[in-house]
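Hi Y.,

Following your request, here is the sequence exactly as I used it, all 465 residues.
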Amino acid sequence: MNQIQFFHHKFPSKILWLLIAAPVVITLFLTISHNLNSVKLAAPYRYNFSPSLPGTEDRQATLQQEIAFYQEKTRQTPDSGLNLTALAQAYLKMAKATGESNWYLLAEQAAKRSLSHLAFNNQGAVMVLARVAQARHDFTEAIRLSQQVLKLQRTNDSALAILVTSNLAMGKLPAAKTAADALVNKIPTQGNLTLQALVFAAQGQDKGAIETFQYALAAEEPGELGTSASTRVLLGQFYYKRGQLELAKNLYKEALRILPRYPLALLHLAELETRQGNYQTAESLYAQVLPNSQKSSTIFDHAVARGKAKLLQLQGKEQEADKLLSQAEILLRQENATGHSNGSFGHRRELARLLLEKNNPQDTAEALSLMQAEINIRRDAQTLDTLAWALLRSGRLPEAQQKIQEALQLGTRDAGIFYRAGIIAKALGNNQQVLTYEKLAQTVDPSFNEQARLTSGMGLENLGI
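Below is the corresponding structure, written out as tokens. Let me know if you'd prefer a different format.
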């Protein structure tokens, strides 16, 4: 079956519009090789539209105008549930654009006010609450709210998308796959196909992942800058974890060409430059994530502090690094200080990883406690790996072995997880398993060396979810 036949087989009649609307992109797409070791940054990976369409030059300014418009509308008619929902949605867009947690809180407040005035047939407000719950890593609540909407609107895109990402975070891959397939079967948009690719990657189905990422880029439309940039960052992460650093770098740079100063692209590119030893370049990238004009805290603050600290550690500047690590720890503790009901957007797993890197008994005990709580919320491969690390450091080897095996059973192909499995096997005296896991790590990422290990796990997994 050739690629066109496969495309029609997978998306029967709904793909006709795409073949008509984007013949140039499809033609270029067909030149891609399916050999993961030989893929180049060919034309399909480039953004083939103008990134400066009307209304896209200053995204935040446009959103501020939208917010001001609906704020005025709600001032004039404060009991209008529909206007309050529109305002909540505008706040949510700003939260995603800036990473500032206060916008999520404003979105939540407006959505709740909307529902108090319009309790029925107000799916928009419910979905805002679901997005806020997901941002807080309250995945169970996000799923509950999404399912509430789907009872009334079986094919609600936003609700299905939350089912994909929340179930991925909870390690419920079959449920994530069901929701992703439903999205793509409805209409194979770039965003829907990207979510399906993430499910393939989490299941360890690399061929399916890269093929679906390619379809996502072929389905690209002008004006959807956020989606276009996000798809490339996620594809860049996919290649980064497989040691194809130049391809990953070019994808991150293309995301930044589409959406300048896109925080996730900057953070992942800085991580890559750090791994390659380009410390000055990485430093300049971190400086762009949080501009001087930034007044409020963001979900990226701790990642920037940790990334800069890692740069200093690798250059032997331990005292300066310790100051930044302390700063990152303070930020993470502040985020974890309150419960979800009080507006917390905490990152327990990220705090636990930072504490484990400090490698002293008191911090290890706290990290284990954090992960024992986190595993009740998230159960993806990275969370299980971090819990296994904490158990290993605590001398609880059988439990560490059990958790790392749970991570491996999910199917996620991650050299860092195979590395951890090898360390645990070595501690248990299983030398043959050690060799097996070392080979598996090298198979996934042939360039996974000490530098790669030192630069991994800098708080970037699932940022923005």
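The longest helix spans residues 59-76.

Thanks again,
Q.
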